[in-house]
Amino acid sequence: MRNASEGTTKTEHREDEALAAAVKLLAGKRLTKAALAQKLRDRGFASSAVDAAIAACEDRGFVDDRSFAQLYVAGVLGRKAVGRMRLFQELRRHGIDADTARDVLDATNDDEDDRVDRALAKLEALRPQDGYGQLGRRLERLGFAAPVIARALRRRADSRGPFPRSADFEEHR
Fold it and tell me: Which of 3, 13, 41, 156 has its CA 20 to 30 A from that of 57?
């Protein structure tokens, strides 16, 4: 149905409103396409209006998942030492597709061995009594993979004492 005074359909009007809402949301905070779409749906916009608004924002460069992921990873790594698995999970939670998340993490110049060493040093400073098993579990919760953790703990063996055999890895509590 056309509105005679405006010359637009009701659908076009809703799409314009969705675009305006999207731009307002993006002016306040960087969002992924998935997060922006969810916020627009939460505001009652139809899927077609949401899709049109997302496409318009993407065409204009207002929303870019790759840039979001790059900035997110740089921000997290600037604040704390976390592993690749955790970064990947956080990117996915924000709505970044798996391929983009992998590409961004592959392009990250930050060395994971350096990050795990920083995390390990911080853990040792906070809890010097923790043994290898406890440290390994804590590093795993930070998102580091088992091979990365094992290499870091072996590097620390000079100052902490001999690295246990795999059968002896679990400690008494």
Answer: 3
